[in-house]
Specification:
- By secondary structure, this protein is mainly α.
- It has six helices and two strands; from the N terminus they run ααββαααα.
- Strands 1-2 form a two-stranded antiparallel sheet.
């Protein structure tokens, strides 16, 4: 096959040097894995400042909006582990208030619903694209 203008004009590249791996540097110790508590604290620190305020039993409580909840947090909520879920999504400053209020499942559900309304679109309420009002005829 004959070379065309594109292939003839290509420059030859030099090979890249091999990457250094952790095995190549025995004096470097791998970082230890964070335990679960440290991982949760890191996630909370990452999300800090992104709380919304919703009413729980007549009191204002700050909660992370549902758009930033991790799937593992949703699994806690869906399996009925409300207190463990609340510890992850409620602002640490308001967590003691949550335990003092001791809400019912209905009250907590309303609280989550109000928090969902604070964001542009609540979970599971996507309508999809609008249908065109103009009808087209296929030929």
């Amino acid at each position: 096959m004959a070379a065309n203008a594109r292939t003839a004009a290509r420059k030859k590249t030099t090979a890249r040097p091999p990457r250094k791996t952790a095995a190549a540097a025995p004096d470097v110790e791998p970082e230890p894995d964070l335990d679960e508590t440290e991982a949760i604290e890191a996630q909370e620190a990452e999300a800090e400042g992104h709380y919304v305020t919703a009413s729980l039993c007549g009191q204002d409580v700050q909660i992370l909006p549902p758009t930033v909840w991790r799937q593992s947090w949703n699994r806690l909520l869906n399996s009925g582990q409300i207190d463990a879920f609340a510890e992850l999504v409620i602002n640490p400053d308001d967590l003691e208030l949550y335990f003092e209020l001791d809400p019912t499942n209905e009250e907590f559900g309303e609280f989550i619903g109000e928090a969902s309304e604070q964001v542009a679109e609540g979970p599971g309420k996507s309508r999809g694209p609008n249908r065109s009002s103009r009808r087209t005829q296929r030929r």
